[in-house]
Amino acid sequence: MKRSNRLVLLVGVFLAIVAFVGILLLVRSPSGDATNKAPTDGPVVVATTDIPLSTRIAADQVTTKVVPLSGISAGAFTDTSQVIGQIARQPITTGAQITTTTLNGGLTGTVIDVQVPVGQRAIAVRVDQISGVGTVIKNGDYVDAIIGLTEEQFVSIKIDPTSADQGIVTAPGPKGATTKVLLQGMQVLGALLPPVAPPAEAA
């Protein structure tokens, strides 16, 4: 009888110890522990060097950086494999985040800022849906243009050291002549779509 009492007592003590240990674990690991908190930082892909417009992004030009979630730009990429091999449709400065806008040039048919490369000049060229290949041409693409000049549009400069009659000569060619000029390797800095026609007024 005494031995049974001792066994019951030992079982009770063991259960009490187990309960005490369980309470300690619950106190030390509450539901609001740091491991369960929402993250405040996240990875983002940034440029390690200046990347010019039209450049195909290489592996040594980008890296991953951890920044606060509040500092991550909209559409930013989180892994370098998502941008390597893609074409930069906007100039990228060192440390800038790589976003979807960087790779698609922004909203189709809108131009916010035109950055002309050093030593070059920019001109506006009007094309239609056929000569402009619809909306396939994007920022950073290189295109060729053929310009046709009629007799009335063609102008040349007459230079004759033996004659005093010098200057600009208009339409020097034969009647109805045309001249073709090929402009190669022009870089597209921006593309605009024609304005949307206003809705027709109701009868």
**Coarse morphology:** elongated
Strand order of the largest sheet: 1-2
Which parts are unreliable, with pLDDT below 50 for 5 consecutive residues or more?
none
Helical coverage, percent range:
10-25%
Radius of gyration: 36 Å
Overall pLDDT: 77
- How far is it from the N-terminal to the C-terminal residue, by CA? 108 Å
Q: Which class do the helix and strand fractions yield?
A: alpha+beta
Largest sheet: 2 strands, antiparallel
The number of E-state strands comes to: 6
In terms of DSSP E residues, the strand content is: 15-25%
SSE run? HEEHEEEE
How many helices? The count is 2
Please give the structural blueprint.
Elements: H1 2-28, E1 41-47, E2 62-68, H2 100-104, E3 142-150, E4 155-158, E5 167-170, E6 178-187
Antiparallel strand pairs: 1-2, 3-6, 4-5
Write a compact overview of the structure shown.
The chain is 16% helix and 20% strand. With 203 residues, it is α+β, with helices and mostly antiparallel strands. Strands 1-2 form a two-stranded antiparallel ribbon. Strands 3-6 form a two-stranded antiparallel ribbon.
What labels would you give this structure?
single chain, 203 residues, alpha+beta, two-stranded antiparallel ribbon, 2 helices
Q: What does the model show?
A:
With 203 residues, the chain is of the alpha+beta class. Helices cover 16% and strands 20% of the residues. It has a two-stranded antiparallel ribbon with strand order 1-2. A two-stranded antiparallel sheet has the order 3-6. A hairpin with an 8-residue loop joins strand 4 and strand 5 (167-170).
